[in-house]
Design goal:
34% helix, nine-stranded mixed β-sheet, 2 domains, alpha/beta, three-stranded mixed β-sheet, 6 helices, 12 strands, Rossmann fold, Ubiquitin-like (UB roll)
Length: 274
């Protein structure tokens, strides 16, 4: 009799569920690898298309429309922006252009917009001076918010009140906030166009020690003592007094006007004869 030796099975027993899960994982890995490969190809193709479009003449800037520029010339804006008619609109970085333009001292804000396919729109809002700050032999323009933003040059329009008696550091310091606020309120009132006291007739606003404010007019040399605080009320009273002096033609005898004490009436000091 022939006996067949039985070999002992050392492998794992067949399990349909386990082997099916392994096969599913392999398929999922293959699908994921395929998806990644397709994605890489799409991205690569998209990048190639983008690079091609950035070199395309179709998106080449043919016109740059600049609005709101008065003090800052259009040529200066173009030079500062770094953009010209050879630039590609698709490749343009708007935020960088806006940051470069906003660095100009006369530009308060700027907006750059694309007008597809080949035009660029630049809208500029410039700072508007309300006074000239004079300190330590230098002169600078001041805007309505009290910011010193640009040096005043001889060929600029210098027909603004001059603020004197302070250093620039003192003007910008927090302890001078009251004085600065008084001056800005006064300028705001004058800017509304009162016929007796227009902004153009204020020659100088001098700050004395302690923050006391003194005004000088362009057409009359005598000081007008305003003191501190209550500038809206003081401006209204002063405008009425000046109107009366104009009407009565009594400026020649006037040597000073005092409004530095709101508890008292306006005092008009006159030269004594004799």
């Amino acid at each position: 009799m022939i006996r067949v030796a039985k070999k002992k099975w050392r492998g794992r027993p067949y399990s349909p569920r386990r082997d099916g899960a392994a096969e599913l994982r392999r398929k999922m890995l293959l699908l994921a690898a395929g998806a990644v490969l397709i994605l890489v190809m799409i991205v690569g193709a998209g990048f190639a298309v983008y690079k091609g479009l950035t070199r395309s003449a179709f998106f080449q800037i043919t016109a740059i429309n600049i609005q709101g520029a008065q003090r800052v010339g259009k040529g200066a804006i173009l030079e500062l922006s770094g953009v010209d008619i050879h630039s590609n609109l698709l490749q343009l970085k708007r935020r960088e252009v806006e940051e470069r333009l906003a660095a100009h001292p006369w530009i308060r804000s700027v907006e750059v917009r694309r007008d597809w396919p080949n035009r660029l729109l630049v809208t500029v809002k410039e700072r508007k001076p309300v006074a000239i700050f004079g300190g330590e032999g230098k002169f600078f323009f001041v805007d309505a918010g009290g910011a010193i933003f640009a040096s005043a040059e001889p060929d600029d329009d210098l027909d603004f009140p001059v603020i004197s008696g302070l250093t620039r550091q003192a003007w910008e310091a927090t302890e001078q906030a009251g004085t600065q606020a008084d001056i800005l309120r006064l300028l705001r009132q004058a800017g509304r166009g009162d016929s007796n006291l227009p902004l153009q007739n204020i020659s100088e606003l001098h700050v004395e020690k302690g923050g006391q404010l003194v005004m000088f007019l362009a057409d009359h040399p005598f000081p007008i003592y305003l003191g501190q605080g209550g500038m809206e009320v003081k401006f209204s009273r002063l405008a009425k007094v000046l109107g009366w002096l104009y009407k009565k033609k009594q400026f020649q005898e006037t040597i000073a006007i005092r409004l530095d004490n709101l508890e008292k009436k306006v005092v008009v000091e006159r030269a004594t004869s004799g």
